[in-house]
Amino acid sequence: MAKEIIHTDKAPAAIGAYSQAVKAGDTVYLSGQIPLDPVTMTVVEGGFAAEAHQVFKNLKAVCEAAGGSLDQIVKLNAFLTDLSNFATFNEVMSQYMSQPFPARAAIGVASLPKGVQVEADAVMVLGN
């Protein structure tokens, strides 16, 4: 099966040896998104909620570039540097995705790139 590299200027450019997403068949594997503004490539300000919103905006842009939407995500992994922000993450997520929600893991981590508080990656299946 051939793989297709997904790229959009509406999400931050990859800052390492990875692609924003890879499509294999009807499945799209989205790389982790941190709260970078895609224009300035700087971390958004405003605390955890602002960071979480930017993460979902970035994921949305990559989903759309692949021909899908956030509601086609079947698995989401959330990485939080402080699990006390879990409720806020849930609240923000519910503003971008509707029920039925995807399967999900929330993982507490010691640190994330650029000192951000949240990162999320996902798997999307097109046509569902």
TrEMBL record:
Ranges that cross the membrane: none
Highest taxon in the source lineage: Bacteria
Organism: Vogesella amnigena
Protein name, entry field: RidA family protein
SUPFAM superfamilies: YjgF-like
NCBIfam families: Rid family detoxifying hydrolase
Taxon lineage: Bacteria, Pseudomonadati, Pseudomonadota, Betaproteobacteria, Neisseriales
Gene3D superfamilies cross-referenced by the UniProt entry: RutC-like
Assigned protein family: Belongs to the RutC family.
